[in-house]
Recover the amino acids of this structure.
């Protein structure tokens, strides 16, 4: 008789847990084995809307930590005074201490979570090994409907809402992404509408140019990811963020603001390649222009091209 092969271990799944942070209840998810990624979610959500892309990271050999930030996903709100980007960043540090997060880790932030990630990397330099900003807030500029570049703080909140709505409705987004977002966002809006409103104001007025410049001077490995059809974080906002950083590694992907929920395979390949890519600072990027924007083509996208299917 032949020797039976031992069953291959199945990758773990995200598991949600509760813990006390600063004496208040916090919800978070963790799963996987491998290099650590701390993922910070976007506005109005609590982390569960990102299950598909984060589960893909786990399948690709990453250990994922996903806190529901204060006021969202069952995590208690911050007291009134520290409800700022700096306050959220400090809370992330307390959360990391509470769960015994191994440091440093790759910090990935999407949208509003990108702004928090910038403050985390700036204020807690021992926590972030590298920073990945996915369709992130933090830039200082915005182009209005007449094509005039204006300060981001002048962008009306209703304009953000209109573009987020438009981002979710094309094609398969309507049936694949929108229900997932609503399941995560609606309970937050019902349970804590004030937190949702306050975070929207933080996102609308965020200008992290000085923090970004300091991170560039510190030579922290930073990757800026932006999708070509994003109107929630338009190109002018993304460009102002990149300008503040000087010459970050920039990756463009197909899709809109919520592309990673729609295309978890691309997100998984992108993050795992970023983690594996050697980076020793701007002086090491002379093999290709550091300021040049490069499009990201993954194996899954190549397969779809070969099969004649359009990219989302």
């Amino acid at each position: 008789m032949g020797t039976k092969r031992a069953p291959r271990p199945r990758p773990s799944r995200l598991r949600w847990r509760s813990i006390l942070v600063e004496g208040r209840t916090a919800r978070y998810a963790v799963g996987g084995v491998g290099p650590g990624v701390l993922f910070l979610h976007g506005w109005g959500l609590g982390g569960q809307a990102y299950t598909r892309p984060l589960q893909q990271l786990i399948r690709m050999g990453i250990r994922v930590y996903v806190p529901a930030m204060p006021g969202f996903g069952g995590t208690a709100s911050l007291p009134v005074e520290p409800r700022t980007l700096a306050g959220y960043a400090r809370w992330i540090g307390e959360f990391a201490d509470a769960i015994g997060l191994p440091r440093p880790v790759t910090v990935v932030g999407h949208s509003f979570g990108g702004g928090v990630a910038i403050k985390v990397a700036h204020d807690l330099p021992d926590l972030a090994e590298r920073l990945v900003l996915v369709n992130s807030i933090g830039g200082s500029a915005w182009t209005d409907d007449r094509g005039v570049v204006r300060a981001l703080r002048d962008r009306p909140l209703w304009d953000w809402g209109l573009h987020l709505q438009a981002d979710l409705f094309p094609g398969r987004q309507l049936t694949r992404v929108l229900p997932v977002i609503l399941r995560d966002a609606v309970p937050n809006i019902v349970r804590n509408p004030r937190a949702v409103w306050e975070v929207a104001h933080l996102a609308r007025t965020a200008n992290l140019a000085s923090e970004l410049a300091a991170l560039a001077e510190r030579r922290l490995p930073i990757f800026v990811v932006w999708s070509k059809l994003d109107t929630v974080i338009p190109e002018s906002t993304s460009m102002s963020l990149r300008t503040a950083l000087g010459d970050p590694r920039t990756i463009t992907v197909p899709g809109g603001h919520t592309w990673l929920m729609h295309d978890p395979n691309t997100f998984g390949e992108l993050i795992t390649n970023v983690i594996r890519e050697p980076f020793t600072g701007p002086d090491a990027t002379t093999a290709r222009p550091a300021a040049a924007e490069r499009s990201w083509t993954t194996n899954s996208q190549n397969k779809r091209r070969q099969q004649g299917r359009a990219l989302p």
